Amino acid sequence: MDEIRDNLVWVLQRLAEWPVWKAIAGAVIATLHFLIGDVTPALRAILVLVALDWLTGFSYALIRREVSSHRLFRGSVKLAIYLILIILGHQCAMSGIPVAGMGVAGLIEGYLLLTEAVSVAENLDRIALHYDITLPFLQHLLKYLKHQERIHVRSTRRGGDVDGR
Predict the structure, then answer these.
(1) Which of 88, 123, 133, 157 is most buried, by CB atoms within 10 Å?
(2) Rounded distance, CA 96 to CA 102, Å?
């Protein structure tokens, strides 16, 4: 086992020394920075909540023995959509239109934060119910978060787009 680990470490060290890998990593980092900008507190919170959502959802699926590649694929598609939304928000913020650009970015970040917070709370509630654990605070938190999500969605629908959508 130690020999396998040592061989793997050796291979990874050699790859890290190869200049092409450094150039590829630099290009990926530069591209991501151009597309999504700096890692803001909101973006950091979204990343943490997405990780918690994945962890709690996967844990619940393991508990129920319902892990499936279809669900994992859907989760990957959801993450890709989130990334595109974050890119959209950042590019709107960088457009130079002060109120509209930042408003779009804030709206997207707020929606993603609320959506992920609700999802994490729902996963925790499912896990607790599976083990017959009663957590009244979690029930109240879930009710509050769902109410906030409804308010957020309702307020965005009232505004509407220029073409009426």
Answers:
(1) 123
(2) 9
Total tally of structural domains belonging to the chain: 1
Nearest to 57 by CA among 118, 112, 110: 118
Within 10 angstroms of residue 108's Cβ, the number of other Cβ atoms is: 21
Does the pLDDT at position 130 exceed 90?
yes
Q: Is the Cβ–Cβ distance between 126 and 118 less than 8 Å?
A: no
Name the region of 106 (left: φ>0; alpha: ψ -120 to 50; beta: rest).
alpha
Q: Quick check: 153 pLDDT over 80?
A: no
The whole-model pTM stands at 0.72
Print the domain residue range for 48: 40-157
Residue 8: Cβ within 10 Å count:
10
Whether 71 is covered by a domain: the verdict is yes
Q: What is the pLDDT of residue 55?
A: 96
pLDDT of residue 16: 74
Q: Six-digit token pair at 48?
A: 């943490």
64's CB contacts (< 8 A; 6+ apart) are 130
With b meaning 16 or more CB within 10 Å and e meaning fewer, what string describes 65-85? eeeeeeeeeeeeeeeeebeeb
pLDDT tens digits, one per residue of 20-52: 877 888 888 899 889 998 889 999 999 999 999
